[in-house]
Amino acid sequence: MSRRRRKSELKSTLWFMPFWYIVGAVALSIFTFYLDYGVNVSLYLPAAIGFSGQTLQVLLSALVGGVLTLSAFTINSLLVALTTFSGQFSSKMLVNFVSDRATQHVLGIFNGSFIYVLLNFFYVTHEEEEYVVATPVLSILTAVVAAITFIYFINHTATWMQVHNISFNMNTKSKSVQAALEKELRPYHLEKEVDTDALPPEEDGKVIKSLESGYLQVADFSRLVKQARKDDALLRFDVRIGEFVVEGTPLLTYWESEEPLPIDRYFKSIEVGVKQTEIQDLEYGLIKLAEVAIKALGHNDPLTVTNTIHQITDLLKSIGQSTNFSPYLFDEEQELRIILNQKDFRYYLHKGFASIREYSDQNSTVMTELITMVSLLSKTMDEEVHKDLWEFARQTILGFDKNSLYENDCLYILEQLSELANNTGYQKDYLFLLEYMLERVSSKGAFERRS
Description:
3-stranded antiparallel beta sheet
């Protein structure tokens, strides 16, 4: 497992962050024991804040039970939240909530507080003449922190479950994945034209096949470029990151110079696993957002659908800018070493919106929102994707069944479609779609009079 994948897996588990809090609690307990029984700090502080051994035992036993009760309530709230996310939105969101740093810190604080108070309880004796200060003071402060954290966690869970925060967090996560990928590839991109006719013949290429079935999760492009430079080879990816492969599927095609390539070294830079991850997969973020919208359609929740469509639009704009990157990666000597398997903007537009369009069952409100967002994208993106935007809108309009629209619904859709046509320069095609839409309205004559 690569360092990047291992880091991602650790972030998506609940035990990693609490483990460090427990380590900190043990260290703090040892320090507290040193203050009371090594330095005897009670000699330098007012007697009013100290406790005798028996009194401190009673106090710590109550604190242990209290902190444990708060932890139980927290775990119960966590399970309720996870169940709600899984049933109402998407099972893929469980990883997002679990890997959220606030969630992990809260669980860490509760586990650390319980361990700290419990350890303090062990080494306090029942002797009346025993007089300690640091242990009761720090234990009480720890319990107060745990109580405040419990209130924070309830507020965090309620806030995180709100529709706009769910979709926004998923969008932000996908953008961070995209930014990390762009940063990784940027040193190997050059403003240099590649003559495709000068590339090695296809028949001279040799294939590296997958040794197992699963998803292509991670590719260490930096390591691959360096290895290809060392071997004086050219690599071409035959599959995309996030794509499912079976055993024996071609992963890479390579052209070697003279010496045979050490295939095992290239396998170390490519990882195939049993699940999709967001480490380098931009498409996975779109799929998760689209799934939330589809779930909301099933629950008759138009607000969630609309909000998710807005976040998909923002993510599509960001992806559209990154897909302009060249698929060619060069080494330090400006020699071509890797050819990526990239999809164009049209593919991501389809992945983001097509499934929502399909499951909306020709809901005019959803259709209008989709056309509106496509029109919005046409205002902010380069002209080279305008054809893709218009084609998606055209196919959406042509998918309507006869007499399936009310007059006002048709009016609103045509209003957005007209704006899209003006932005993309497809006014002539708009006239055809206008006639097509008018035929879908039963009161055609009334509509024409209003127009």
